[in-house]
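Notebook entry, cofactor series.
This is the third protein in the set we're modelling with a bound small molecule. For this one the ligand is pyridoxal-5'-phosphate. I'm keeping the input format identical across the series so the outputs can be compared line by line later. Sequence and SMILES below, as received.
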Amino acid sequence: MADHLMSTYTRLPVQFERGDGIWLWDTQGRQYLDALSGIAVCALGHAHPGVTQALAEQAGRLVHTSNLYGIELQETLAARLCTVSDMERVFFCNSGAEANEAAIKIARLYGHSRDITCPAIIVMENSFHGRTMATLTATGNRKVQAGFEPLLRGFIRVPFNDLEAIRAIAATKSDTVAVLVEPVQGEGGIKVPDRGYLEGIRSICDEQGWLMMLDEIQTGIGRTGEWFAFQHEGVLPDVITVAKALGNGVPIGACLARGTAAGILQPGSHGTTFGGNPLSSRAALAVLDAIESGNLVANARSVGQQLLEGFRTSLSATAGVRDIRGAGLMIGIELERPCSELVMRALERGLLINVTAERVVRLLPPLITTDHQAEIIVEKVSELICEFLAE
Ligand SMILES: *Cc1c(COP(=O)(O)O)cnc(C)c1O
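Returned structure with ligand:
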């Protein structure tokens, strides 16, 4: 039936028809617990009443006008995002990759404003920043880049979680203008850097006059138990990019900046037709409302902790489990061997999970996950992993 779709995805043999909170129902009426949230997107779960009502109401009033005109909902959303992030200005777009494109363009303009003709951005091994030409160049995964050469110039790659490697670039490469890094690597396997890593990057950027740019597309909007992952370390970046959870499934991305970085884009230097239109802005405002009124950032922290402790209790002693790690509701269980078939086995048991970096079981349950649902997740996932490793 998918004959007319380009073969960009290997899809699982299931289609969902309806959702409610953490639950999904397929076309056969089978029920699933969604511990992946559409890859960290549906943080409020499915069919959230607040978002549904806001969307329906806005769809009946005004969907799109373009950025040729003022959009009050977009202005309100920008102000709300700046309040929770301590940033000053926002550019809205439609996806994560586009948010990173905006950040990359800001870094390059910033470089040129300082008379650097070939500005370079430091990026990390094992990172993921998207699938457009600039963001796949920034991505530290050969599989994402293969076949798309020539890649862009102006990126310098260093190992993740290695401040010395960044200092070495500072000492040798004078064209450097920015560091772009995920505070926790998501696609790369839920890699949590050492405490002090972001603080270290902040101080190198300050010394060198570089922009500190954080890709919070997966970590942002409460997922790690703070509004943004950088807030665990009390540092303030110059630029952050956000997307996934911002619209709970309505496509919207944002590039937030403060200080010099916030004033770099000018009329004519960047833009997008759809970005921040009334419909997506309204959806994102409803998302922020629901997170605040439901105290869901704190919930992400406590349920995330419960999941981590639960898995450590049930799996730490299991041969074949290499590491159990996480930040809030980003959980990774690394096995000693590739385990992609676990995704299908979980599906057969009514559970949606993901495997990334070949051997890391990745869980990204919604921020509305209850203690009881977390218990179910720990029980089911532990059982799956134990059975698999016993084979
Ligand atoms: C998902 C993701 C992206 C890309 O977002 P798209 O909306 O798919 O373009 C970029 N960076 C990170 C960290 C992500 O998790």
